[in-house]
Amino acid sequence: MRDEQVIAAISTPFGQGGIAVIRLSGRGSAQVVDRVFRGRSPLSSSPPWTMRHGHLVDPRGNPIDEVLAVHFKAPKSYTGEDSAEVHCHGGPLVAQMCLEALISAGARLAERGEFTRRAVINRRMDLSAASAVMALVSGQSPKAVEAAMGSLSGATRRAMEELMRDLTRACSHLEATLDMPEDEIPPLDWERLREDLSRIARGIRDLHQRGLAGMALSQGVQVTLVGRPNVGKSSLLNSLSRQARAIVTPIPGTTRDVVEAAVIHRGVPIKLLDTAGIRDSNDPIEALGVKLARETMLTADLRVLVLDGSSPPHREDLELLGSLDMPAAAALNKADLGTDPSWDQVLRDARVPNVTLSALSGKGVEELKDLMVRSICSNPAVDGAVTMFRHQLDALSRAAEALDGALSSPYLDATAQLALEAQRHLASALGLDPTEEVLEAVFRNFCVGK
Ligand code: GDP
Ligand code: ZN
């Protein structure tokens, strides 16, 4: 049975504002409000989707605030359940007192993301749309908001449903062939089936790419600056983010832990990390910074190797260039002091995209930002980016893997098995009948009131 207990939470941000909205959901929401609402007529006997004016009172009947209240009839509400809203004045104390009155009237405080969770369970909203709600609430950049709108409108769900329909058709074709007595087996059109399965696999991969792009857009792309001490990493970070964040000194080994800065460039949020100069050190604190630098380097979406272009390449520069994890780029810094001619050949041999710049004068810094965005967004999926939960991305990637297996198996029954497995993963990505675990994982990061 569905948990229909009436839940309540303040849905507007904490702090002072013109109004605060307390949201309630579950059968009997309007009746709960009525126990502490004093208006011309009870809310539950007023027409739904219409604002009513009145006062909210505490359990002893003392007025707390003048409010507007509205109730919604299932299924035409955010959660798909009977629900209600109380709009009170936006002081944090008043809103809290109104919420407490509603709780004493029989509502339970909602858990994180519980409204959206109920919307998903009631199929009022699909998982991609729920992820869009989160992205919109925490939206960090215009492109991330754009990606969220695609999912909120149901476009992501429709794309998944279409793949699901095709896959289901292919699966039933395979199963029917397996179920038939041998002498009645109609000739299975293998070529046609293989084409269908590969087309579906491509579709799933494409959606996965777009989901990854959406994730990068909403979380921001991580870029680490690496390089020998004193090449200008901290100066470059400051220049990139146009704020003095990192400590810049002429003494090598100043940056001992990771310094972060965020910039939005062409609608894409970039999270920049300045790491300690990579070199062996006897100073334990600096050594710790170096270890951290190595770790951040591994997890970054892009590594930018900063080089001092004004002097000839060092042995360490060449080592770093040779051992860079991809994707990576090089920033040939200190161009204001002139560029040593030997860099040209070195960078050509290394085959990493590079920009000549000066952190000091700012020349070339915008080009580096362009390069960062391009190297991450070279993936054409960025334009079709959509938001999804990590769970959905994983499920899509498993579905594509299962289909690869189905396509490469020489045995019909193995193909059928794997195609069915792909179908299960796709259903999971769609959020059809989500398990408690999935719901838990998905809504853990929501805030109360969403
Ligand atoms: P890090 O150790 O790699 O973080 O290097 P810093 O950012 O601390 O810079 C080391 C030294 O190089 C400082 O004295 C900076 O002022 C200087 N520096 C950094 N970038 C430039 C640049 O583009 N041009 C010039 N002339 N000096 C720079
Ligand atoms: Zn530094």
Automatic annotation (TrEMBL):
Cell compartments where the protein resides: Cytoplasm
TrmE-type G domain boundaries: 220-377
Xref: InterPro entries: G_TrmE (IPR031168), GTP-bd (IPR006073), GTP-bd_TrmE_N (IPR018948), GTPase_MnmE (IPR004520), MnmE_dom2 (IPR027368), MnmE_helical (IPR025867), P-loop_NTPase (IPR027417), Small_GTP-bd (IPR005225)
Cofactor(s) in the UniProt record: K(+)
Binding site for GTP: 230-235, 249-255, 274-277, 333-336
MF GO annotations: GTP binding; GTPase activity; metal ion binding
GO cellular component: cytosol
Principal cellular location given in the protein's record: cytoplasm
Binding site for (6S)-5-formyl-5,6,7,8-tetrahydrofolate: 23, 85, 124, 450
Family recorded in the similarity comment: Belongs to the TRAFAC class TrmE-Era-EngA-EngB-Septin-like GTPase superfamily. TrmE GTPase family.
Protein name per its UniProtKB record: tRNA modification GTPase MnmE
Provenance organism: Thermanaerovibrio acidaminovorans (strain ATCC 49978 / DSM 6589 / Su883)
